[in-house]
Amino acid sequence: MVITKDVDKYYSNGCHALKSVSTTIKRGEVVAIIGPSGSGKSTFLRTLNQLEEISAGSIEIDGVDMYASTTDINRLRQNVGMVFQSFNLFPHKTALENVMLAPRIVAKRSQKDAETHARELIERVGLGDRMNNYPSHLSGGQQQRVAIARALAMKPDLMLFDEPTSALDPEMVGEVLDVIKGLAQEGMTMVIVTHEMGFAREVADRVLFMEEGALLVDDSPQAVFGGDGHPRLKQFLAKVL
Predict the structure, then answer these.
(1) Which domains does the chain have, with CATH numbers?
(2) Which of 138, 149, 186, 187 is in the most buried spot, having the most CB atoms within 10 Å?
(3) DSSP code of 153?
(4) Of 187, 112, 196, which Cα lies nearest the Cα of 157?
(5) Mean pLDDT within 169-193
(6) What is the pTM of this model?
(7) Is there a contact between 207 and 34 (Cβ–Cβ < 8 Å)?
(8) What is the C-alpha separation between 77 and 84, in angstroms, rounded?
(9) Is 48 exposed, middle or buried (0-12, 13-18, 19+ CB in 10 A)?
(10) Which three-class secondary structure string do you get for 197-233?
(11) Distance CA 161, CA 154 (A)
(12) Which pairs from 85-92 meet CB under 8 Å and 24+ separation?
């Protein structure tokens, strides 16, 4: 579904943020990206939605070259949902209105269809009794679950999560991870940047380990967390586990 080949990213200050990153993500696969801060995890994730433009290499999603002159990037993005560290909900709109917004404006769905689907999604993330609440009346975990419902509202084929629990209090992390686990069980294709090693080991089909912009390890959770392999990976895991 997603093929990246020799992806490089340079910033104007000369920083080489991504160094020849190549991987393939299959439909229905859950891929976790781990590594120390500043290793390029989030930068790489953002290139999959062209929120960061690459400097060299190629990215294909469902056979479409993201950087081809004929590619409609806005249309391509409709098939790629993204959930950020911060919730980015509209504070003046209820949970239901936040989830309905993109389908109504971008996808031009009818009010009735958008609302029906939004209600189903909010129920799905366990917030059926919070549909008419404004973000200020929701906990951080609840806001992030609304953000996930909002991303799902466009019926994406691929979901990207950029450290979705990093802004949450520890007691709220589990409720968000449970929603993501549910999506994994339903077969949603997902790429997740995370510091939750137990979650990565339990849910991911594959784990990518990045360091200084390079993809050093691309393997199964069993291999990654099994104690063998790349010495830098072992050093990293010894500090975080």
Answers:
(1) 2-238 (3.40.50.300)
(2) 149
(3) T
(4) 187
(5) 94
(6) 0.94
(7) yes
(8) 15
(9) buried
(10) HHHHHHHCCEEEEEECCEEEEEECHHHHCCCCCCHHH
(11) 15
(12) 85/162, 85/163, 85/164, 85/166, 85/167, 86/167, 87/135, 87/140, 87/143, 87/144, 87/146, 87/147, 87/167, 88/147, 89/135, 89/143, 89/146, 89/147, 89/150, 90/135, 91/134, 91/135, 91/136, 92/134
Token pair listed for 100: 């309905």
Q: At a CB cut-off of 8 Å and minimum separation 6, what does 12 contact?
A: none
Confirm if 194 and 37 have CB atoms less than 8 A apart: no
Distance of alpha carbon 51 from alpha carbon 2, whole angstroms: 16
- Per-residue model confidence (pLDDT) at position 98: 98
Q: Rounded to whole angstroms, how far apart are CA atoms 236 and 241?
A: 9
DSSP 162-194: ESTTTTS-HHHHHHHHHHHHHHHHTT-EEEEE-
List the structure tokens of 185.
């069980």
Residue with tokens 């080991």: 201
Average pLDDT over residues 145-154: 96
